[in-house]
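Curious: why this fold?
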Amino acid sequence: MKLQNELSSKIYQPGNYRIFYIKEPKTRMISAAPYRDRVVHHSLCNVIVPLIEPTFIGDSYANRLGFGTHLALKRCTKFARSSRYVLQCDIQKYFPSIDHEILKILLRRKIKCPDTLWLIDTIIDNSNEQFPASEHFPGDDLLSPLRRRRGLPIGNLTSQFFANIYLNSFDHFISDDIQISSLVE
């Protein structure tokens, strides 16, 4: 009831993360939210996932019910057996590099409810510090990477879902605009 009252009166503030590190295959900082915050994250995802997930491409497998690692591996194996070339790539420091302002803009394209947006902003704004990931882009000056908050904690359900949203346009570019899937199948 206390948590419900905090949320409805918009005084809810996320608690401190418990931080630990995993070393395989590379060192990553994992941030475990307090139990009450995980309840909030799951509740929020129960509301926003049905609104946004239908916009994901069919070959987006991370953190989706009915998808996952095994299905992704099966699909990848099919592509590898039917293709001469395979591109394997990784986005360096992906979670630490997610720009909060860009993420909020992407979320606002689909979510219009002010209360839901307040909660999303509260969760994003209270993300803990991540490994530094300061990248410069065309038009940036020396201090540009320091002006905007970046990084989502690995370990939150919301972070996993927000990460899918953040790359959704790129997924569609690869799949729809340059039609990589049609070259592979």
